Amino acid sequence: MYEKTFPNKRFKHTLEFLQKHVSTSETIFDLGVPNPFSKIMETNGYTVKNTTGEDIDNNQTALQNESYTVFTAFEIFEHLLNPYTVLENVKCDKLLISIPLRLWFSSAYRSKTDMWDRHYHEFEDWQLDWLLEKTGWKIIDREKFTHPVKKIGFRPLLRFFTPRYYIVYAEKIKI
User: Fold this and answer.
1) CATH of 2-172, one of 3.40.50.150, 1.10.10.970, 3.40.50.300, 3.90.550.10
2) What is the pTM of this model?
3) 158: alpha, beta or left, given left = phi > 0 and alpha = psi -120 to 50?
């Protein structure tokens, strides 16, 4: 079923992880403009709000002014220069974040045509864990998963065995 309805394994895995931790009665604030995955969330019964394209590194007012019970950032944090202040400004008690992991056999992604489509951070799992801990979040669940590609070569072969994505569910630590 999923192979026909989802453009890739990452979306299938992300939706299953989301459904495991978030009910459709909750309102999601999804960091980033409306995108294919925010549409998948809506199709699966979630109420989703997105940012409008503002530079999140410099302007976190949407995080403070919107009403939401869950914060999501799926493959967004690697594009930010300062994800620390974003996490400090999240005003709900639940979050889900996924990131592409830094791969030893591949350099950081950088678009040659789009100045915003670049990875400033390529995290290792412990780096995201530390960032969450430093900003007052406790990781409840985490998973790593691969993302094979249908190409021939050494790197595509490594993608069958090397985890490419890391997804976490965390809750705000009550002080």
Assistant:
1) 3.40.50.150
2) 0.83
3) alpha
